[in-house]
Specification:
single chain, 453 residues, alpha+beta, 43% helix
Length: 453
């Protein structure tokens, strides 16, 4: 709940927690009458809160895995309380009795349009197949679209009732607000929920740790090969992901500081990023898009390679082989970097540039508030992350980076998956390369996974 209210305190942030762990009902699983509730989120979001609008205020309720109630505006404390009370009353008293034709045109069809995959290209589907294997809470958009037309307003109401029956509430106020106002606003939310008969227990969110990403089995590369579903899309794509570890990990190296994994992944992107583009796109001319870099997903650091193109003589299998060749070349370059004073100097310059980048302080009160708020809601809350990341970067050496490269990228313990989508210009091989494991049935493969980060 974001309320820039009256007061003179520059950036007061108050965090008050009431609730049960996300492993309870607030994990949002099986709340709806038709199974997992993600299908209901957009339907709920499209019911209007116009009755709660006031001049100079923008009340918003965002329905996701958690529900975010926010009031943005500038006024006196009593006005904020009035808008907040009215907003919660409207939300909790929705009858879901809209005219059916209006419900179909303003709620169902926009939801179906949003989840329509008809125009998805090969990159979209390559990413989708990766997520369907790796993400514990993966939701197929085509399922959402198909079932949206079957959901009634009473279904949506039942979901909302179930969600609010047993909840956790995390309330924060960021901006120019006094402490007593922050306490009052959070109390209003708590009291309104209790009035509904909801169960609220006191549990500190810092005890919770989300584990949403399955670990790909270590060892050989796992490969997904699929034909392009939209025949009017002419491109092909290969996405290769190396799963590393949670970003706060020390990489399993004794004596290394926390966030060593973060430092490794970010430095590797600085070292390889331009070379990757030059080799895959300019030198090999594989496609109009080629890149590599780190990506943080659900707290887990990954290193991505991606190529998308339509050259007739170079399809996704070729992209994958060239990515492997690039990795071998970069491995040799990293070895040579540590053998010369010039290489070590360049490595130190990259460390300095990365440290400077992440040490940039928020320029505005809004940025500072957003930074605090983001950390408050983090399951690994730590307000000293920047300092720890800088320390991990400082402690990184070429030899340590090589050890981690061997462990996570080229070693026998790596966790690698390649998603290959073949457009109309490319024949899809019926078998995998030597040393690869072909994932023919994604659902069956996913059922075998149990270990998470």
């Amino acid at each position: 709940m974001v309320v820039p209210g009256p007061g003179v305190e520059a950036a007061h942030t108050l965090h008050r927690v009431y609730g049960v762990p996300r492993s309870g009902h607030s994990r949002c699983e099986d709340l709806g009458p038709r199974g997992y509730d993600t299908r209901y989120l957009w339907l709920c979001q499209r019911f209007s809160l116009y009755e709660a609008w006031e001049a100079d205020f923008n009340p918003v309720v965002e329905f996701g895995e958690s529900w975010t109630i926010s009031v943005n505006g500038y006024s006196d404390a009593e006005k904020v309380e009035d808008v907040l009370n009215k907003m919660l009353d409207v939300l909790f008293n929705l009858e879901f009795d809209m005219d059916q034709a209006l419900f179909n045109s303003t709620v169902v069809r926009p939801t179906q349009d949003y989840y329509d995959e008809e125009h998805g290209d090969s990159y979209y589907y390559a990413q989708k197949y990766l997520q369907s294997v790796r993400d514990k809470d993966f939701v197929d958009w085509s399922d959402v679209k198909n079932i949206a037309g079957e959901i009634s307003q009473s279904d949506v109401k039942e979901y909302m009732i179930n969600f609010l029956r047993d909840v956790s509430v995390t309330c924060s106020v960021v901006g120019n607000a006094k402490k007593e106002h922050a306490i009052r606003y959070s109390t209003i939310v708590k009291e309104k929920i209790l009035q509904r008969g909801s169960l609220i227990q006191n549990v500190d969110r810092r005890e919770m740790r989300d584990q949403y990403v399955y670990k790909i089995p270590a060892g050989p590369s796992h490969v997904i090969k699929r034909r392009m579903e939209n025949i009017d899309q002419v491109t092909s794509t290969t996405l290769v992901i190396f799963q590393i570890d949670r970003m706060e990990s020390n990489g399993g190296i004794n004596g290394s500081p926390s966030y060593t994994v973060f430092a490794f992944a970010e430095l590797l992107e600085l070292i390889m990023g331009q070379t990757c583009f030059s080799y895959l796109r300019t030198e090999r001319q594989l496609g109009y898009m080629a890149y590599c870099g780190t990506r943080l997903e659900q707290g887990v650091s990954n290193f991505y390679f991606g190529v998308q193109g339509s050259r007739p003589d170079a399809g996704p299998d070729v992209y994958d082989r060239e990515i492997n060749s690039l990795i071998v070349r970069e491995h040799e370059k990293l070895r040579s970097m540590g053998l010369s004073p010039d290489g070590i100097r360049k490595f130190d310059e990259l460390k300095t540039a990365l440290s400077d980048k992440i040490s940039i302080k928020p320029r505005t009160l809004s940025e500072k508030s957003s930074e605090f708020n983001s950390e408050i809601y983090s399951s690994t809350r730590d307000f000293k992350k920047v300092e720890k990341k800088v320390a991990a970067i400082s402690a990184m050496t070429v030899d340590k980076l090589l050890d981690l490269f061997g462990k996570y990228i080229v070693g026998n313990g790596r966790r690698k998956i390649s998603s290959q989508v073949y457009g109309p210009s490319h024949e899809m091989p019926s078998s995998s390369e030597a040393g690869e494991i072909l994932i023919e049935d994604i659902a069956a493969f996913r059922q075998q996974l149990s270990e998470t980060f």
